[in-house]
Design brief:
transmembrane, membrane, transmembrane helix, mainly alpha, ATG33, 234 residues
């Protein structure tokens, strides 16, 4: 490779490191705190999809910077194999590799896509209660006829002008169905509260790790940037 091509590869590598540092910093400063607020207010996974996209972008950037610094060091002349190329190569890998310590949290955060039923469960279906007067229509009719017959036989004992007694209604049996009491949602509230608390703790830990990784990538970018500028200028 010619000197111009190697220099171009070095510049691409430095730029990739800078973008990697910016991506990790943006996730730790902007996206993760936003997701923490979403968890505290409502169960949502909109922002976590953006974090997963940011992880993919960071993976591409660290792969690009590592490849560029490796090629630049390999094809540079002997007197131009500067140590900063190795520092940038190793620093980029270690900075992004530090984010892999969040793998246990990442597996749990994938469950952040909670079904709607968990966030706001539908009330338990209640069987419709059929009035006793309908279910026992036949029995009531029979009772009415029976009582009416008795009233007709005793009509002569009632005073003139009085209104005959209204038919007696047979009371509902003791074992008749009644409306069930509403199901308590205390267990559901406890489950959602514990779930949110666990997600918040994991996200706070994720934020801290990504912030440290961004700092490491930023330091590596600074070293490589100074090396490339000094090499090109001098």
């Amino acid at each position: 490779m010619t000197g111009t091509c190697v220099n171009s590869i070095k510049i691409i590598g430095v730029g990739s490191l800078g973008l990697l540092s910016g991506s990790l910093a943006y996730q730790s400063i902007k996206l993760i705190p936003q997701l923490i607020e979403e968890v505290s207010s409502s169960v949502s996974n909109a922002t976590y999809s953006n974090i997963r996209l940011g992880k993919f972008i960071s993976r591409v950037l660290v792969g690009l910077s590592t490849t560029c610094f490796y090629l630049a060091y390999k094809y540079s002349p002997g007197n131009e194999k500067h140590p900063y190329l190795l520092y940038a190569l190793v620093g980029g890998i270690l900075s992004y590799g530090y984010t892999f310590t969040t793998r246990p949290d990442d597996k749990k955060l994938k469950e952040f896509a909670v079904p709607k039923a968990r966030a706001s469960p539908a009330p338990a279906p209640v069987d419709p209660v059929v009035p006793q007067s309908v279910t026992d229509h036949d029995d009531l009719g029979k009772s009415y006829i029976h009582v009416s017959d008795e009233d007709s036989t005793s009509a002569t004992s009632t005073p003139n002008g009085s209104v005959p007694s209204s038919p007696k209604v047979v009371p509902a049996p003791a074992g008749a169905a009644s409306a069930p009491a509403p199901v308590s949602d205390i267990e559901h509230e406890i489950d959602v509260s514990l779930f949110k608390k666990d997600m918040q703790n994991r996200l706070v830990r994720l934020k801290s790790i990504y912030l440290k990784a961004a700092g490491g990538a930023g330091l590596t970018f600074l070293v490589s940037f100074i090396g490339v500028v000094g090499e090109l200028v001098l």
